[in-house]
Amino acid sequence: MAYEVEKTDEQWRAELSPAEYEVLRRAGTEPAFRGEYTDTKTAGVYGCRACGAELFRSTEKFESHCGWPSFFDPKDSSAVELLEDRTHGMVRTEVRCARCGSHLGHVFEGEGYPTPTDQRYCINSISLRLEPEAG
Ligand SMILES: [Zn+2]
After folding, report:
1. Which helix (H) or strand (E) holds 115?
2. MsrB domain: which residues (predicted)?
3. Exactly one of 48, 51, 97, 122 is catalytic; which is it?
């Protein structure tokens, strides 16, 4: 699949920090409860740290206590791409940025969180950059 933003591995390595590269381009996972946005309640829009595409909003962020920023819905369903992930002996749904294909995290559903969708987009802080609302 072709993405709107395509870069070589070398370019990504040059533009991202080693920790960002590991998660965004190698589908790594940041340690639980360490990410900078885990408990953030600031109003604003979370963009992709790799390409800047708007992905999630603070209005859909909720406290899941799972150790990573959690959202019950993306900003637009077309902003993210969902792929089956069979690594680590599990079947999970990987969430990627639809614009550049960078790894964001995974989405889980049916866990019983009291949210409108019963879905939990479990996203690495390091994959995101919060643009606080003006004012
Ligand atoms: Zn992106």
Report:
1. none
2. 9-133
3. 122
Q: Which residues, by Cβ under 5 Å, contact ligand 1, an ion?
A: 48, 50-51, 53, 97, 99-100, 102
Going from the Cα of 98 to the center of ligand 1, the distance in angstroms, rounded, reads 7
33: Cβ–Cβ under 8 A, 6 or more apart, which residues? 67
Residues in the chain: 135
pLDDT for 43-83, tens place per residue?
Answer: 999 999 999 999 999 999 999 999 999 999 999 999 999 99
Residue 5, classed as helix, strand or coil, is: coil
Homologous superfamily (CATH) of 9-132 is Peptide methionine sulfoxide reductase. (2.170.150.20)
